[in-house]
Amino acid sequence: MKVSDYIATTLEKNGVSVVFEMIGGMITHIIDSLHQKTKINIVSLRHEQSAGFAAEAVGRLSGVPGIALATSGPGATNLVTAIASCFFDSTPTIFITGQVNISELSLDLPIRQQGFQETDIVSIAKPITKWATLVEDAEQIPSVFEKAFSLATSGRPGPVLIDIPMNVQRMDINPVVQKSHLPSSGFVEKVDFHDQLKSSLSRSERPLLLLGGGVRTSGSIEFCRELVNVLGIPVVYSLLGVDILPYSHPLRVGLIGTYGNRWANMALMQSDCLLVLGSRLDVRQTGADADSVSKDRDIFHVDCDHGQLNNRVKADYTLVSQLKPAIKSIIESISVEIRRTQWLNKLNQLACTYNDKSELVGCVGINPNQFIHSLSEASKPAKTFLADVGKHQMWTAQSIELSQDQRLLLSGGLGAMGFALPASIGSAFSTNQPVVCIVGDGGFQCNIQELEAISHHQLPIKIVILNNNSLGMVGQFQEDYFDSRMQSTVWGYSAPNFKSVGQAYKIASKEISSIEEIDSALDWLWEYPTKPCILDVSIDLNTKVFPKAAYGRKIDDMDPVIKNI
After folding, report:
1. What is the Cα 364 distance to its own chain's centre?
2. Hey, what CATH class is 191-353 in?
């Protein structure tokens, strides 16, 4: 069997239904084999970074590794940002790059390059992959792909890169799979952890559960929801945990972190027992003053990555384990409701007193937090929401109202502008249901060329641009720390007329700039649920993201300062 045919059929046998690519000479054999030998949908994008982000969305939504292909040289290096995004957010993905013929590789020669577009992508990608390899022997292909699928999905999921020279792709092989040997990453039983957790929860007056993105990546969502209902304690969540509980859940509190909901950060700092699942407690979640989070409460932290435990925030009790078996064992060992009515009532009161719609005092024009609530209410047909990186991402995370089955995808650890538009394409192909893509004018321009793919395939993607005609998040930082010298965020920055851009790509487009236009615009957005469209929403340049935790202060000490909290 030809190697490229084996690769194509192996992808299909492993549940891959769609691959994303930008064609180049060194992957033509694989693309042709995919076309001839499989029913896999081959989606051509206009930039390899976009192919990577689209594959990331598939991996996050389906659990089956997302697949992106690129040619050698610039094609491979253009994947790097997406690879890093998958690595930091623990997304199962396999990146396949074509390489020049083995005879054209410089290898150990004292030269920079032998073949045209030759690039050592394996060395570049190793720090941001679970495994990166150059296949020099065609007979290794079966075991390489078995190992790739296993590594991408096991333990802490993440990306794998396979670099395949052109001459290897066209060789014939005897496709006998060689079993790969991978380290076990199962549950580590720790009885004292459960005993201490049960004891702490039983005497706690203000217990709290913190959920992060690991709940999703570990496939533990249903177990986690069961745990919440069994324990009956309130839940806060990190940026990648927004969609774990539906907005209407009575135990859902809110988003913690630098731009979290004020009342959720208050809940975190007032808790006396904290169980952390699927969150690494990074600086954006806890603020720079990690010691203040460690004090005055019992902290129980579960993570499959030993290095994440007691890294910044010191926990009283830790457990190295995959989340699914860990949660199951907690449910079995603590089958007693811990509900504290007085504590729940207090948190509900805080949420009413310091609600997100009222943070932007004196907001001119459209209040973005209020708009996100309205957009959520109107977007019941959507299966997936995505937000790019910038102010709009924080407004979305603070205020979005998700139902039980809706998802929110964000670029978390890497924080890559340009993520949302191509990831929306991956989401549309993965779910075959409508998608809402929330972007800023800056992030939208990073991969704006992918409007062509959306138009070409007539994907059901509703693009909502929160347009403040600036790079607002950095601009807010400049206001605070650089005496409002807005170089490169306002000064020297501009955006096109997005309605005209949409029309150029034959996508229906509309602009609004006032509160009175919102309801009719949202009706227009969903008039044809399966059709793509663009809604450009004007946001005043001076609209900030509030509340915001100030550097060096406790996470619940947020700007603007509110007296008598």
Report:
1. 31
2. alpha beta
Tokens describing residue 92: 């199962």
Supply 532's token pair: 């793509």
Q: CA 269 to CA 285: how far, in whole Å?
A: 12
Are the folds of 3-169 and 191-353 the same? yes
Helix 191-203, helix 323-333: angle, nearest 10:
60
Write down the pLDDT at residue 177: 57
Distance CA 134, CA 109 (A): 17
Q: Which residues face 461 on adjacent strands?
A: 435
**pLDDT value of residue 301:** 96
User: Do 70 and 24 meet the contact criterion of CB atoms below 8 Å apart?
Assistant: yes
Q: What are the angstrom distances between the C-alpha of 269 and each of 197, 291, 398?
A: 19, 11, 18
List the beta bridge partners of residue 167.
none
Give the domain ranges of the chain. Answer: 3-169, 191-353, 361-546
Residue 131: C-alpha distances to residues 161, 219, 294 (Å)? 6, 22, 34
Query: For residues 42 and 176, is the Cβ–Cβ distance under 8 A?
Result: no
Q: Which CATH number fits domain 3-169: 3.20.20.10, 3.20.20.210, 3.20.20.60, 3.40.50.970?
A: 3.40.50.970
Q: How far apart are CA 106 and CA 473, in angstroms?
A: 44
Which SS3 state, helix, strand or coil, does residue 70 take? strand
Joined together, the tokens standing for residue 474 give 């950095």
Residue 237 bridge partners (DSSP): 211, 255
DSSP 359-404: SSTT--S--HHHHHHHHHHH-TT-SEEEE-SSHHHHHHHHH----T
10 Å Cβ neighbour count for 560? 12
Distance CA 486, CA 493 (A): 10
- Residue 23, classed as helix, strand or coil, is coil
Map residue 239 onto helix, strand or coil: helix
CATH among 3.40.50.970, 3.40.50.720, 2.130.10.10, 3.60.20.40 for 361-546: 3.40.50.970
pTM tops 0.85, yes or no? yes
Contacts of 326 (CB under 8 A, 6+ apart): 187, 277, 302, 319
Query: Do 549 and 558 touch, CB atoms closer than 8 A?
Result: yes
Q: What is the 3-state secondary structure (H, E, C) of 290-324?
A: HHHHHCCCEEEEEECCHHHCCCCCCCCEEEECCHH
Label residue 534 left, alpha or beta by phi (over 0 means left) and psi (-120 to 50 means alpha).
beta
Q: Is the dihedral of CA 424, 427, 428, 429 positive or negative?
A: positive
Distance CA 151, CA 130 (A): 7
Q: List, run by run, the mean pLDDT of 10-residue segments along the chain (565 residues).
A: 97 98 97 98 98 98 98 98 98 98 92 92 98 97 97 96 97 75 55 90 95 95 95 96 98 97 97 96 90 94 93 93 93 83 96 94 96 98 98 98 97 97 98 98 98 98 98 95 97 98 98 98 98 98 95 90 68
C-alpha 529: how far from its chain's center? 24
Q: Which residues pair with 438 in a beta bridge?
A: 387, 464
Count Cβ atoms below 10 Å from residue 184 Cβ, excluding itself. 6
